[in-house]
Queue: 2 jobs
Job 1
Amino acid sequence: MPMRRRPHESPAELLRRIAGRLPVAAGQARLAARRHVPPLKRARPTARPQGEVLNPGDISCIVFSKDRALQLDACLHSIERNAPYGGSTVVIYLATNPEFSRAYELVAISERTRLLPQSADFRRDVLEAVDTAARYTVFHTDDDFCFRRPAGHLILPHGFACFSLRLGENTKYCYPLDREQRVPSAAASDSIMEWDWTRADGDFAYPMSVNGHIFETDLLRRMLRRASFSNPNELEYELHVRRYMAPPLMLASRESCVVSVPANAVSTTANRSGEDPSYSPETLNARFLGGQRIDLDAMDFSGIRGAHQEIPFVFTSDAR
């Protein structure tokens, strides 16, 4: 019987349950028999994909945040410093009490960034935030850090689902599944790697991530047209179950450029995260209101080996 998502189960938990039981294509084929979903298409990676270089001005960004103004502030600062996006950035945020709300008023934003309080209709918020004039769209959550600039130019040719900034030859560990993962051997150039995600393992088999994957905006709009979701986890799940609509190949820099730092949990689903009480949303919010910020320059990103990794925060009181 096909694996079905349990009530309040996150995409990571679903992946954890099915890990090792069925190859991606086999599991999806069984699901297709019940839901009339086409089987996953497979392709042979090419020796060197051809495509025009992505113009930063053509990439818009949407960031999701809940009760984590301090982490959002660092995330946005890292995007401004290292991310290859030059389009608009929209932050859809939710503050569950007045103290969290007050902290969001202190988040430093650039002139091309706007903060949008989440409404009762999260789906509408997301669809309205998607810039239809931008050729490409990337999602982030507030615990993402763009810790290095991509090496070389980014491309996204026809036949590729996305360009991942969170994956690379260094990401040998899958944090949600708490195990090592097989890194695809196919490489396209000195700075870019490519692979068939339908034959891949762990994070490399998960193209529709909301953590630093650059998509064609038209593809996202087609996927979201009939999707129903009320929070970022459900959005990612709806994209995941529609992955058959995406081409079977992915691209990434040979070294990852984005890492999610799961220091705490704010969602109602039980995503894996750190348990240090000094990193609780309330404690970090108090630090932020007190004038402290995350010091990106002092944090140690030298040993990144996963798309998610717990890294100690370093704080500073110096104004940026």
Note: The CA atoms of residues 65 and 93 lie 5 Å apart.
Job 2
Amino acid sequence: MKGKRERKNHINFLHVDFAAHVFFTILLDFAAPEMFRECCWMVEKRGSVGETTFHVCFLMQTPTHLALGRRLLRWYPKLINDVYLSEEYYGENVLHMSVVAEDPTMVKYLLDQGINIHERCYGNFFCPDDQRPTRNDSLEHELVDVNPKTNYKG
């Protein structure tokens, strides 16, 4: 196992090469260990909205894609914790996609595999329209700060 650390905009990327895949952790310079997020898929190899191939399999929801997603999860079990990393969909994971697709079989499979049921979506897409201009990131926590007053009735 060999590691490499590089500095980019206050974020350190720790790359650890294994035989078939690369595994890394995003580390904030001043953050406590409990503030770290472990990701299995390299940030540089993700899609334009922070998705992985694993996410695309669940997004497409065809039997072939779902079978491929199960196989990827069997080979790389830490993929289950990967979330979208873009500002628009940050925090969305494959459990959210399976629930939206109303696929109880896949939801049960993901629960049996140990997916984090407390994962929350913080992306701009999931924020009411009137709160979007007040969104602010914090270096103290992963949550997005927004004005609590909204006209959202849902």
Note: Residues 40 and 78 are 6 Å apart (CA to CA).
